[in-house]
Amino acid sequence: MQWIKSHLHVVICLALGAAALALIVFGMLDGSVAVALEKDIGQVRGLQGIQPANRQHIEAAKKQLAATRKQVQAAQEQVQAIAAHTPLIDGLFPGATNLSIRLKFREALKNKYENAFLRQLNAKDKPDIDEITFMKKKMEDDKKKAETQRNTGRGGSGPGLTGRVTRRGDSPVAGTPEEQVEQDAGARISVMRARQIYCYAGPESFDRHDQVLDSDRPKLNDMWYAQMSLWIQEDMVQALAGLNQREAEALPEKDRWVGHLPVKRLEQIRDAALGAHAARDINGEA
Asked: What global pTM score does this model have?
């Protein structure tokens, strides 16, 4: 007994080992344990042999995901490009007092409305009376030249050009459209203009901020609202010009003119909210 007490931990370990060995032996002898073990092994082997049944769909989904990510990245880059607005003239804002830089802004703003926007849109306005009159004179000169050549035996019968100027309200020249173009100055120059442009527009098609353009000493407050309005108009012009340009590129070259394009005339861009703010001198500035 004294030996057992002094070696109690050894006795406990031996007892536990014997119990575990007995359980293992009983488990091996029990047929149900072996059957369950074989079943589990079969399931594990079955799981290891599983292959994806929809590999083509998985690959297609991966490609679609990559394409979507590329589109999102392109959209983000476009947004960043649109949002990257810079002032028309450096050094003017927030508080330039130099009159020369203000006048420089005024001239740059005028150029935007009268030239830059129109070039970007590939746009011109309809022919005015001066242009039609000039065409009339040219047609009359061509007629006289043809008559002179005919009388001297150096030309044919020559076209019967009248050089007539058709104004709004006049009766149109009789005949087919082709004959009208040959005979009427207004019709001829209108067709020529249409085939040169993608869109009808003029300087008055834009929100011009005349309080800046017509002033000898433009106010900084007015110029700031003109600048904000210009940023909005730049985005709109870019969108309209891009639409017509994409459509034109898909057409045969002979059809790349206003008659075949979606944006045919820009009537007017007007920002009423900015215009109302700009009409007030918030800072009381002279």
From this structure: 0.59
For residues 223 and 111, state if they share a domain.
yes
* Angle at which helices 99-111 and 220-249 cross, to 10°: 30
Report the alpha-carbon distance of residue 103 to residue 99 in Å, rounded: 6
Per the prediction, the chain carries an average pLDDT of 78
Contact 244, 263 (CB under 8 A): yes
More confident residue, 92 or 52: 92
Q: Is the peptide bond before 218 cis (omega within 30 degrees of 0)?
A: no
Answer yes or no: do 203 and 276 share one domain.
Answer: yes
Question: Are 189 and 165 in contact, with CB atoms under 8 Å apart?
Answer: no
Q: In this structure, are 154 and 95 located in the same domain?
A: no
> Does 237 have pLDDT greater than 60?
yes
**Domain ranges, residue 271:** 74-122+199-281
Residues 93 and 213 in one domain: yes
For residue 63, which phi and psi values (nearest 5 degrees)?
-65, -40
